[in-house]
Specification:
Helix 1 crosses helix 3 and helix 2 crosses helix 3. The longest helix is centred in the C-terminal third of the chain and has 45 residues. The protein has two domains: 71 residues, lambda repressor-like DNA-binding domains (434 Repressor (Amino-terminal Domain)); 48 residues. The chain has six helices and no strands. By secondary structure, it is mainly α. The protein is rod-shaped, with a radius of gyration of 29 Å.
């Protein structure tokens, strides 16, 4: 049971490290060289194959400029889906604003038409 939890934690931490690396646009080689380890050794960290000690976690956290707790958190969300959801929401807002502007123009035209009819009726 403890072995299963350990594997799950290693995979979760590795996924968080990979997510942070992707968010920064870094390659495995970039991070491995900053850590002073080989690319395969870093790949094993990301895939959760290697147990990471606290000093290595601190070193990785420093590279990514995050707290060690962030690396240990269950799973960091990818930024891309949030960005795409934000883009979708922004597009919807822009569409609604255009719709509102169009409706406002229609109201103004109807108001002017009504005013013209009223002034024509008053003259007659």
């Amino acid at each position: 049971m403890a072995e299963n939890l350990k594997k799950k934690t290693n995979k979760s931490v590795g996924k968080n490290i990979r997510t942070l690396r992707h968010q920064r646009g870094w390659s495995q080689e970039d991070v491995a060289s900053r850590l002073g380890i080989s690319i395969p050794a870093f790949s094993k960290i990301e895939t959760g194959v290697t147990d990471i000690n606290l000093s290595r976690l601190e070193q990785i956290a420093n590279i990514y400029e995050v707290n060690v707790v962030n690396l240990l958190a269950l799973e960091i969300e990818e930024v891309e889906p949030q960005i795409s959801n934000l883009s979708i929401a922004q597009k919807k807002i822009i569409d609604r604003e255009a719709e509102i502007a169009n409706l406002q123009r229609k109201v103004i035209l109807l108001y002017e038409e009504l005013r013209n009819r009223t002034s024509v009726s008053a003259v007659s």
